[in-house]
Amino acid sequence: MRKICLSLGIAVLAAVSACGKASTPTTPTPSPGIALSGNLAFGSVVVGATATAVLTIANTGAAEMTVSSIGFPTAFSGNWTSGIIAAGASQPVTVTFTPTAATAYSGTVTVNAGQATGTNTIAVSGTGTVIPTFTLSGIVTETPPTTSTVLAGVRVTFVDGANQGKTATTGADGRYAITGVINGGFTVSATLTGYNPAVVPVGIDGNTTLNIRLDPLAPRTSFGPGQYRVNTDMPAGRYYSDPAHGCHFQRLRGFGGTSGDVIVNVQINFDAGQWIVDLLSADAGFTTDASCAFWFTTPRRGLQATISPGTWIVGAQIAPGTYRAENSVQGCEWQRLSSFTGNADAVIASAFAAANGPQLVTIASTDVGFMSHVSCGTWTPSSTTTAR
Predict the structure, then answer these.
(1) 287 in the same domain as 344
(2) For 225-249, how does the pLDDT look when each residue is reduced to its tens digit (9 = 90+)?
(3) How many structural domains does the chain have?
(4) Which secondary-structure segment (H or E) carries 139?
(5) Sheet hosting strand 184-191, strand order edge to edge
(6) Does one domain contain both 248 and 204?
(7) Domain range for residue 57?
(8) Which of 42, 62, 91, 256 stands 20 to 30 A from 28 (CA)?
């Protein structure tokens, strides 16, 4: 009996000893998690321009997350591409879309990091577009009353907005054209030496016309087609032009438009090498057309050995003496002049050839000028006679 009880006690003791041994639980290792958010659908962006959006990289895990790189599709980039994001923190990334062509762009932004859970990609898209461009054009003239006087060499420039710096220069006809401009409200300047600059607003809505007028800083020393006030728009004095056939000009005593306002009316029905007019301080005005071209205060030619059709200064441009027009034809007309006013009393002597044949004229040293019609041809010095 005693043996049995002892054995039982040992068994119970062993069992109690085995039951008292406790097990240790395993603790999970902290890990990062990733979540990407943001609207990266950029829509339409002009080629060459940029647009931005914010991508947020969130660490949703319990351990810091190391971002080793971020991959962007063509035309997209970011201002942050690697670094450490603490547990529970986030990192904003400015994503820039810069289209280089008028086409659709799309793809996936991939954040390369040691994350345990979450999605490390996000879609991105955008479309490159081209803004339609137009032309701003017009003509630059002088201020009233000379609005038909075109100005060459005027620099017309956009001074603000998206078109800033775009410029063009007027040609001989006073016209300019600035291409490649976009719609909107802008400011344009026009500058030319000798004139007050003009700054004018312009609204571009498709191809647009803008005519500009400039105000002279001082009385003119040259001028083109138009109507002018003597002593106001330009000083009285002697003016020279190289006119084409059909040149028409008038010296005026008024601007009423009546025949009584005309002092002298001149129509040049041939291509003259030069024409001269004297504007007097008593004149009210002067009108000239496009065929007369520009008038200047300086002669258009120097001293010549022969005399061609036109009006010329004796002494400075042609020497006094006797000249022969060998190939003169019917209608040859010449005048020796005491001035270039165009008045009848300015004619010292004149002649008109009723038939073809050589003509002779003696120009005195006291003559102020000489006029010859195209029918006279070229006058050459005659060796048979001498000047008075």
Answers:
(1) no
(2) 988 889 888 899 999 999 999 999 9
(3) 4
(4) strand 134-142
(5) 167-169, 155-158, 184-191, 198-204
(6) no
(7) 33-129
(8) 91
